[in-house]
Automatic annotation (TrEMBL), chains A, D:
One of the protein's GO biological processes: Mo-molybdopterin cofactor biosynthetic process
Summary of subunit composition and partner proteins: Heterotetramer of 2 MoaD subunits and 2 MoaE subunits. Forms a stable heterotetrameric complex of 2 MoaD and 2 MoeB during adenylation of MoaD by MoeB. During catalysis MoaD shuttles between the two heterotetrameric complexes.
Classification lineage: Bacteria, Bacillati, Bacillota, Bacilli, Bacillales
Recorded family membership: Belongs to the MoaD family.
One GO CC term, this protein: molybdopterin adenylyltransferase complex
Key words of the record: Molybdenum cofactor biosynthesis, Nucleotide-binding
GO MF annotations, alphabetized: nucleotide binding
Protein name per Swiss-Prot or TrEMBL: Molybdopterin synthase sulfur carrier subunit
Pathway(s) where this gene product acts: Cofactor biosynthesis; molybdopterin biosynthesis
InterPro entries linked: Beta-grasp_dom_sf (IPR012675), MOCS2A (IPR044672), Mopterin_synth/thiamin_S_b (IPR016155), ThiS/MoaD-like (IPR003749)
Free-text function comment from the UniProt entry: Involved in sulfur transfer in the conversion of molybdopterin precursor Z to molybdopterin.
Automatic annotation (TrEMBL), chains B, C:
Protein known as: Molybdopterin synthase catalytic subunit
Subunit structure and binding partners: Heterotetramer of 2 MoaD subunits and 2 MoaE subunits. Also stable as homodimer. The enzyme changes between these two forms during catalysis.
EC number: 2.8.1.12
Classification via InterPro entries: MoaE_sf, Mopterin_biosynth_MoaE
Broad enzyme group: transferase
Tagged with keyword Metal-binding: no
Function, as annotated: Converts molybdopterin precursor Z into molybdopterin. This requires the incorporation of two sulfur atoms into precursor Z to generate a dithiolene group. The sulfur is provided by MoaD.
SUPFAM superfamilies: Molybdopterin synthase subunit MoaE (SSF54690)
A GO MF term: molybdopterin synthase activity
CDD domains for this protein: MoaE (cd00756)
The organism's taxonomic lineage, starting at the top: Bacteria, Bacillati, Bacillota, Bacilli, Bacillales
């Protein structure tokens, strides 16, 4: 299973903080397309992706146990 | 513990104390507070949310980047999360260096980097609604899914 | 009392409190501390001396110059006099502005101006003697008897 | 009388914090030459001058009651 974390507007849009999903061997891009199809996640387009707390590309391949966080444009400071 | 996400109010002096050294002649601090008016719109309060373990890693990364550019600099950063009222402190950055120019430059570098790579989000509560600020004009999207090297290193 | 010469240790938070406003999103502070090593020479302690009434006037002038360049800035400066040990605070400058770039720029302007026009002197006590620092290479003499307009305004 | 204030190395050189001197109508330059002749004040060459707490030129004319401060290169901050 992949553990997906949602923050800020992604959390508001989906009503969820996290989603568990079968995605062993998927790319980040495939995961995004699946989530866009299943949830109301328009903001995913402009989000960055972190895999296990490091920024990752759309073609990063995911493995069971990975934590994927979608990171809307940040606004700290 | 120079890099911290805090649910409690930030005590500025505690952040400064982390960077004072016998050979630091200059300490700069940046204190980001909640401003009431933004482009004529009135903020009532803010909510800050963080992806905490990654936010701490990214603050540490900023400290390491500073160390690479200004080897004698010491850096400490605390960012608040939760509900903040007008004039509450959202972030304190303290940097010490032997000479003052570096202390200003390195401090400014830290706040710019925080706004680029640290997973913290601000929800503005206005008189007439609420918005996640990152969704607005202030930050560019990253179409590739992650910040480019250029974004990270310059 | 935003501009002060103090015989007692400076409390940073008190200087910051003078500039916090509902519309200041950014506060920068510069904290000048006594550094142990200067060009390989070890400082034991310092004595700061001020021509106090004029020093306060000149600090106020710096605040007015900042207000002219950055109309929304609030400035507070406290400079210590007397004997200071290593890591003791010599000066604290706090500047608040609505946006962060101005807070850095205005703060830096203040410290540069302090080093030009405020009648305060530092006597370094080294392991092997003592010197008034202004007599050394750090400051230029003013042959006409006063700083030129150029020195004052740029 | 003119009240002359000395600071930092000028104070050390002369052993005095202040000097009272008859100088009504003198220029700052004349006062400086008088002080250099009467006291050990080599550092006067590189000092700025303040009359009544404002920086003044060498040709400023002094009046009874004026306070003249000689200000060696400053080193605050």
């Amino acid at each position: 299973m992949i553990n997906v974390l949602l923050f800020a507007q992604l959390r508001d849009e989906s009503g969820k903080e996290s989603i568990s999903i079968e995605g062993n061997g998927w790319s980040v891009d495939e995961l995004k397309r699946k989530l866009k199809a299943d949830y109301q996640l328009g903001s995913l387009e402009t989000a960055m992706t972190a895999v296990n707390e490091e920024f990752a590309d759309d073609d990063t391949i995911l493995s069971d146990g990975d934590t994927v966080a979608f990171i809307p444009p940040v606004s700290g400071g | 513990m120079n890099y911290k996400i805090s649910k409690d109010p930030i005590v500025i002096q505690e952040v400064i104390d982390k960077v004072v050294k016998r050979n630091a002649g200059a300490v700069t601090t940046f204190i980001g507070t909640v401003r009431e008016m933004t482009k004529g719109k009135k903020t009532l309060f803010l909510i800050y949310e963080a992806y905490e373990p990654m936010a701490i890693k990214k603050l540490e990364q900023i400290g390491a980047e500073i160390k690479e550019r200004w080897p004698e600099a010491e850096t400490a950063i605390t960012h608040r999360v939760g509900k903040l009222d007008i004039t509450d402190i959202a972030v304190v950055i303290a940097v010490s260096t032997p000479h003052r120019n570096d202390a200003y430059e390195a401090n400014r570098y830290a706040i710019e980097r925080i706004k680029e790579i640290v997973p913290i989000w601000k929800k503005e509560h206005w008189e007439d609604g609420e918005t996640w600020v990152g969704n607005q004009l202030e930050t560019l999207p990253y179409p590739s899914g992650k910040p480019k090297e250029m974004d990270i290193h310059d």
